[in-house]
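job 3f2a | input accepted
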Amino acid sequence: MKLKKVTSYALHALMYMVRHLTQLPVSIEAISKAEGVPKSNLTKIFKKLVDAGIVELATPRSKGYKFVNPPSHTSLMDLFEVMEGSGLFKDCFMKHCECGGTPENCYIYGAWQRSTKKMAALLTETSLVDAAWNHPEHKFNEHPTEMPVEP
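job 3f2a | predicted structure (151 res):
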């Protein structure tokens, strides 16, 4: 499984917010500068995060965002499903193979299904707080380039 770069951008933006929880609300500009994520990407990402109920504008006129619920209540799986879509682990990674296999009659598909269930469980039990405090802080780069964000 390979996540889109914008999903990584979203995770880093939210980890930044967790690390600066006492300083929220925070603007997209501040996150962009601190994390090296293009502002235009963050604008699109935060629209998705607002629509999903993960973050909200602090006030209707505010340019700063805060969490809707404590970040310990949002899992990595929640975030990944918002950014990547649901069903991250539903298909066999060899889905382009026309074998018609099922987890019951294909060893590879069965192994994939068993391992992705474990991964899904791990992502579900890992909160934004867990991720933020167990991941090194870094910037993406000094001159970020825009990555397309799917609607």
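job 3f2a | The two ends are 21 Å apart (CA to CA).
job 3f2a | closed
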